[in-house]
User: Fold this.
Amino acid sequence: MKRRLILILIVLTLITSQFSYAFGYSNETGSLDTLQNMIINSLRARETSIDIRYTGDSDDLKNVLSNVINFDEYLKYTVMSLKWQYTGYNGKLDINFSTSHLLNKAQEDYANQRIKEILAQIIKPDMTIHEKIKTVHDWIVLNSEYDTSLTYRTHYDILYRGTAVCSGYALLFHRMVSELKIPTRLIVGNAGEEHIWNMVYVDNQWFHVDTTFNDPVPDKQGRLRHDFYMLTDEQIRKTHTIYTENKPVSTVSYELLLNKLSQRTDDNLYVELINQLNLSIIDEVALNNSIISNPLSGVVNVTAFDEYIQYDDNYGFPFIDSNDRTQVPFRITLEYFGAKVDWIPESNTAVAMLNGVTVKIPIGKPYVLVNDKLVYNDTISVIKDDRTYLPIRVVLESFGFDIDWNSNTQTVIVKK
Assistant:
């Protein structure tokens, strides 16, 4: 089965001049962050040329221009070329960008609209994240045909023509899952030939999903597989070589995760998923033994404004404490909401400041201080594995957020 990734070369060209300087630029900035955003917005609009006047140091400028494409993974794999040159002197630089894309603005708009329409049809409000991911995967496989002519390369081609090579499959999964606010990554590697697939984040774990390999060739109407669905690094490496650097680590089997989740609810959802994916039901004794050294023992999700907060081994994972209250890693959680955080070592107190409100969280105490006013809580903040954890409800409610809880999916839901 021939599967080819069309490699995209980002061409960066630097031309400088001491004397040339042009006037009349509508895009002007002295901020590198603003400059970067201008470029990214232009690329997202599928513009083929943009002129920007920048006032600042050329050495800093070179670094931004050379790395701008890496700030948006979707753009990285849909921009075919990015050439730039600048002219100027005395810190006043005129920059010209010339770009080419795998798809144009009209095609991008069409794809975005079709994705919204499809998701509105196939995704139900009461679906769990597991059901959403599988529904998207199955729709793509059932409605796509691998392009053996190796002509069509994008998600637009699948949505418009019904066919594409692996990059089309991976880009479509990436866009559809991203639209659902589920974290996802594009992974490049080799599977007999150059190849691209996805990783997706659920219940504090990352998994590999290869929609291309789950679509039989030649195409058979109504047939799909799940052989390459929600795999660990170890499982995917049996057939795939991974090139992508700094990718998420995946070590927990999806089978184990679903079995663990099935123990927490009387709903048959997770058992049905296990059966649909031809996985095995693990008996309770074996399951408990498997979890002893496994982070799944306290799987808790946190969503903020319909987006999942991503936790990892560096910061720690949310868990439910002995008082049946959700504890979350202090710094990564509060910084996600834009809070400024601090630590007072003399009193062993975590501090968070947001929108004029200061919350002090003494470790081991059944209260917090909100603008120095005592607010009692029914659990305590803790230090666990050298990481600081705080009770999410009392802290975020102090900042004016609404907190809800979905017991079926073990998810804290944060709303404005």
Summary: The chain has four domains: 28-101, 105-251, 255-291, 300-415.
